[in-house]
Amino acid sequence: MTRGDVHTYYEDGLWKNRIEGGVRASNTSARRSDAVSFGRTMARRKRVTHFVHDAAGNVESRKTYGPRS
């Protein structure tokens, strides 16, 4: 999974998106729905997988937008 998949997760009272391998969040949102929508758009543009985590950190859903390897 070193191809830059996108993760939407909850941390420090905010929903965040981070590209796998990155250190910082790409964006933050107070609303989960906004963060998921932004993460999905990022994953589609990069043609990678979008992982959505619940507030506890468990993977809730996963959708691949690019070629599968």
Which tags fit this structure?
five-stranded mixed beta sheet, 69 residues, alpha+beta
Task: Please provide a brief summary of the model.
The protein has one helix at residues 32-46, and strands at 6-11, 14-19, 27-29, 49-53, 59-64. By secondary structure, it is α+β, with helices and mostly antiparallel strands.
List the helices and strands and how they pair.
Blueprint: E1 6-11, E2 14-19, E3 27-29, H1 32-46, E4 49-53, E5 59-64
Reported for the largest beta sheet, the result is: 5 strands, mixed
Q: Which word captures the global form?
A: globular
* Percent of residues in β-strands: 35-45%
Count of the separate structural domains: 1
Radius of gyration: 11 Å
Order of helices and strands: EEEHEE
Tally of contiguous helical segments: 1
Explain the overall architecture.
By secondary structure, this protein is α+β, with helices and mostly antiparallel strands. The chain has one domain (6-64). The chain is built from 1 helix and 5 strands. It has one helix at 32-46, and strands at 6-11, 14-19, 27-29, 49-53, 59-64. β1 and β2 (14-19) form a beta hairpin. The radius of gyration is 11 Å and the shape is globular.
